[in-house]
Amino acid sequence: MAAVFITGGTGYIGRVLSERLVSRGHAVRALVRPGSERRAAPGCAVVVGDALAAETYAGEVAPCDTFVHLVGVPHPSPSKADQFHAVDLASIRAAVSAAASAGVKHFIYISVAQPAPVMKAYIAVRAEGEALVRAAGFDATILRPWYVLGPGHRWPIALIPFYRLFELWPRTQEGARRLGLVSRAQMIAALIDAVEHPGPGVRVREVPDIRKAGAVR
After folding, report:
1. Chain Cα centroid distance, residue 190
2. In angstroms, rounded to a whole number, what is the distance separating the alpha carbons of residues 83 and 25?
3. How far is the C-alpha of 136 from the C-alpha of 162, rounded, in Å?
4. Confidence tier at 96 by pLDDT (50, 70, 90)
5. Which of 18, 103, 118, 151 is deepest in the core (most CB within 10 A)?
6. Cα three-residue angle 9-150-2, rounded to 5 degrees
7. What's the 3-state SS for the chain?
């Protein structure tokens, strides 16, 4: 069983992931903001700290061997470019620093599907996050969803018929698959698979891989 440190442990993906990992016998430490302790999943060891400041939680990462970074601006949009730098980039810098100082073996990072014709600032920040993970020398799994459907995140469902058409046309097939929609359940399954099956080097999981992991589970 893995010992897993999760940033964003009370978030849209983090709380459900924490709950599932605990139910599967893994030891989970969830980083939460002050005042959010009760929002952590039952069975987690709660670490109170600031995801943007490694020094507030780095000492609590060990002895975890796996680090899952889930902090980011909710509901990304082109109008939030400044927030992407202030939150997404600052938090991945802190996470890489904390994980490296704790001797973490496997780093798991949710990036974003790329390239894409929109959301340039968001993609640039997440690509920089990927570069930080690679430069740190971790064995790592990088997941690249485009949009994760789930509670409070359902508006793109109306686009599913168009995605299916684009996936059938040779000229648009590759882009439609790379920028396809995934469900929160599929993301959780892909993250659990990454935790339970770490591999050497840096592995990138695109939308088709995330869907496949969800289908298996």
Report:
1. 10
2. 36
3. 40
4. very high
5. 18
6. 35
7. CCEEEEECCCCCCHHHHHHHHHHCCCEEEEEECCCCHHHCCCCCEEEECCCCCHHHCHHHCCCCCEEEECCCCCCCCHHHHHHHHHHHHHHHHHHHHHHHHCCCCEEEEECCCCCCCCCHHHHHHHHHHHHHHHHHCCEEEEECCCEEEECCECHHHHHHHHHHHHHHCHHHHHHHHHCCEEEHHHHHHHHHHHHHCCCCCEEEECHHHHHHHHHHC
CA-CA distances (angstroms) from residue 142 to 55, 56, 60, 154? 24, 25, 23, 24
The pair of three-digit structure tokens given for residue 135, joined into one six-digit string: 């430069």
Q: In whole angstroms, what separates CA 94 from the centre of its chain?
A: 15
In the predicted model, is pLDDT for residue 30 greater than 90? Answer: yes
Nearest one of 50, 19, 25 to 35, comparing CA atoms:
50
pTM above 0.90, yes or no: yes
pLDDT in tens, 35-60: 999 999 999 999 999 999 999 999 99
Angle between helix axes 170-178 and 160-168 (nearest 10 degrees) is 130
- 147-188 pLDDT tens trace: 898 887 666 655 555 556 556 556 666 766 778 889 999 999
